Amino acid sequence: MSDANPGPGDAAAARFRQRFERLEAEVGQVIVGQTEVVRSVLAALCAGGHVLLEGVPGLGKTLLVRSLSEALRLPFGRVQFTPDLMPADILGTHILLEQDGRREMTFRRGPVFTSLLLADEINRATPKTQSALLEAMAERRVTIGGVGHELPSPFFVLATQNPLEMEGTYPLPEAQLDRFLAKVHVPFPTLDELSTIIDRTTGTAAATIEPVLDGPALLEMQRTVRQVLLAEPVKRYALRVVLGTHPEGPGATDTAQRYLRYGASPRGAQSIILLARTFALLDGRAQVGLRDVRRAVLPALRHRVIANFEAEGEGLGPAALLGRILDEVPEQVGAVADEAQRG
What we know:
Layout: H1 10-28, H2 35-46, E1 50-54, H3 61-71, E2 72-73, E3 76-80, H4 87-91, E4 92-99, E5 102-109, E6 116-120, H5 127-130, H6 134-139, E7 141-144, E8 147-150, E9 156-161, H7 174-177, E10 180-185, H8 191-202, E11 213-214, H9 215-226, H10 232-243, H11 254-259, E12 260-262, H12 266-282, H13 290-301, E13 306-307, H14 309-313, H15 318-328, H16 332-342
Parallel strand pairs: 1-9, 1-10, 2-11, 3-6, 6-9
Antiparallel strand pairs: 4-5, 7-8, 12-13
Helix pairs in contact: 1-2, 10-12, 10-13, 10-16, 12-13, 13-15
């Protein structure tokens, strides 16, 4: 084993699943369909990371985040990103106040000082403003005027963005994308789902959400995730998948060499492991399996690999490329060989 901890106890694992299912059910009262989207977002939160939701307007991305904020007893803030938004509008700024004839500079906190921050349509702001969240997302703190300010715990950024092909959007810098633990694609609803949406939104009945979790419970769930056992061969398989995305590396796959410009960062490997641990718990297991790693690869890496012109010309997106890479990276045989070589 690569972990020294004994793993989560049965009671902790059962409590995790019960809380997760309660939260999932509460959000599901408002969000129609999108089961995999909701589960991926909640899994990323339980893993302690930020989430980027991408989809065309009107698919309920903002509604999902707002519903989640209502189901959690956490301070909630929202920033509507626009081209004229400035970094100070997010982080805060120093203002000059006059009291009793005295003037003094006072720091007025921005909306980032919350536990759950909705960055709505984040790619409609300029890269300068987008980058204002870098320190907050990576270190849970911000520096204003040379003074550091700690953010609340827990702290999550749930961002929504429109596809880059739409007018008035700016691509997020690679460093910004790398701060998101997962990127989740929101698909268009099916006919039956669209019918249910119309019934709910054009009728008289309105669904209500009750808070089911608070901050301490969510922090406990995050600790439980990190206690899930990770065998050395499974860890090495996840690392080989990440190395397989680097076109010029020694572990490059054929797909990476042909279709990718850049591969995933070490944060990508961290994201895979944390999501895989969460998925294992949801399946009732206290140890990560290879299938958990495979399930975690797409949300963890789809925003961390950059395709080249040949891939774009053939219409191959991150999902298709990562699927091919998974097929090219050996599971059992390579894992056993690595373990034997290490011993």
